[in-house]
Automatic annotation (TrEMBL), chains A, B:
The gene is fnrL. It comes from the Bacteria. It comes from Jannaschia pagri. PANTHER family: CRP FAMILY TRANSCRIPTIONAL REGULATORY PROTEIN, FUMARATE AND NITRATE REDUCTION REGULATORY PROTEIN. Transmembrane segments: none annotated. The lineage of its organism: Bacteria, Pseudomonadati, Pseudomonadota, Alphaproteobacteria, Rhodobacterales. This is Transcriptional activator protein FnrL. InterPro entries: cNMP-bd_dom, cNMP-bd_dom_sf, Env_Response_Regulators, HTH_CRP, RmlC-like_jellyroll, Tscrpt_reg_HTH_Crp-type_CS, WH-like_DNA-bd_sf, WH_DNA-bd_sf.
DNA sequence: AAGGCGCCTTGATGCAGGTCAAGCGACGTG
DNA sequence: CACGTCGCTTGACCTGCATCAAGGCGCCTT
């Protein structure tokens, strides 16, 4: 409403990680007009967690919805006997919390240090109801997540351990480095978290990582750093080396 | 707009499977007002497929969105080497097609005989844009599907073959019979489709079905009929019978 | 009636990935 | 410094499911 809040809004529009938008993405900001941005700016608060912190347990009251600003968080489901499967991996600009449902359906854990931009449910849902641009964007984001979940199901149901690990590494490498070989990244996940993502055990993940390294398709730098000159090789040739060239 | 179309709308409201609503569900119809129902009635057309028919291949142009009226259809993804994983199972009132994307992202196959209620994309999207009730309902449905996909991921990633089969049977039994033991159903899926759903082979599905029958937790009637007096037993005790009582 | 086909079941065997166990390097703490 | 812990790796072994193969049953066609 005031000149200063509009100035903040314009500044936000100049970056990809828009600061004033619940969905934290330029595509939305571009369609948010002044008044909406003002309302959002008044609703939001920030909060941070350390790597490993549990942000919410399954069944907890989650009195906010939020947009992930920095870091990486996971959604996991645990069966009665303790088996656990990751079912969501949130990266910056991803949305957390379901409008209209206060209970957390999954355990939410900070994989790395995390900052959330949080909105009180009441205010957010009022805004959703009378801001078609934002609700349409939220629908798009849900459908993108559904597509991602379906790709993930193919991975869980049909891929071999080596393909699983290669696929996950490729996803992370692509997100981290915007092209320009060699692709490099710091893994935001522990081996445990990777195993949970992939439906494998930690030992199998570890073995496949060293197998990929020995096959020459990736390089490891310490326990978190990875590099890859050829994503295609990672994804297709992974599992060759039949003559054992790299093992001798 | 006319008296007769309003009459049709009211009649539709009296049943759960609403005939005039793109989302085919009373919850939506209850929030759809007269004018919207009229517009929907003018947009829709019906079309049927036989069991086994391919409704759309991955990458096909899908010039409509639709609501599944009767029967059961599957979404599947196939890897380059032919491995295939089901990633969606549509039942009556489920929605098919993504607004804003004309390409089919998955192969759509009729599991049983199927009828779709179809809407031209252009008209549907115009209506979406200025009908908040319907677009909100579509968001809810997407989020429900996302939850279902995540349950499915737990199944694919962490459950044993026996648990997988038991879980699928329980889902079908619950949908088919509204309580009142013994639960009975005709499976809408072939063993092949079940294997595709579960990330297993057809042989393993078959073996687990007979194991569950021998353990006494289900009965089989021909190849498609199943019954179960005790869902809890199916889901928890599945895999016991350690002393072989039922095998002697 | 014979033959063929689609769908399902059952058996024998092999292997990918799980399980159990040991050890290693980095880091923090008394 | 010794010690414990945490995250990771590696090895040895085992098992659940895939694979390969055969056969049964219902149904259609000729």
């Amino acid at each position: 409403m005031t000149v200063s809040s509009l100035a903040i809004a314009s500044a936000a529009l100049a970056t990809d990680a828009c600061d004033s938008c619940p969905i934290r993405h330029r595509a939305v900001c571009a369609s948010c007009e002044g008044e909406e941005l003002d309302r959002l700016a008044e609703m939001k608060t920030y909060r941070s967690w350390k790597a490993g912190d549990v942000i919410a347990m399954e069944g907890d009251e989650l009195p906010f919805v939020a947009s992930l600003v920095t870091g990486c968080a996971s959604l996991t489901r645990t069966l009665e006997d303790g088996r656990t499967q990751m079912v969501g991996l949130l990266m910056p600009s991803d949305f957390l919390g379901r409008p209209g449902r206060r209970m957390a359906a999954y355990e939410v854990t900070a994989a790395t240090d995390v900052t959330l931009c949080m909105f009180k449910r009441g205010a957010f849902e009022v805004m959703l109801a009378d801001t078609p641009n934002v609700s349409r964007r939220l629908l798009e984001m849900s459908l993108d997540e559904l597509d991602a979940a379906r790709e993930w199901m193919v991975l869980l149901g049909r891929k071999t351990a080596r393909e699983k690990v290669a696929t996950l590494l490729a996803i992370i490498l692509r997100r981290a480095s915007n092209d320009a070989a060699p692709l490099r990244a710091q893994l935001p996940l522990t081996r445990d978290a990777m195993a949970s993502y992939l439906g494998l055990t930690i030992e199998t993940v570890s073995r496949q990582m060293t197998a990929l390294r020995k096959a020459g398709v990736i390089e490891l730098d310490g326990t978190r750093g990875i590099a890859c000159h050829d994503l295609a090789a990672l994804l297709t040739e992974a599992g060759d080396d039949e003559d054992g060239t790299f093992l001798s």
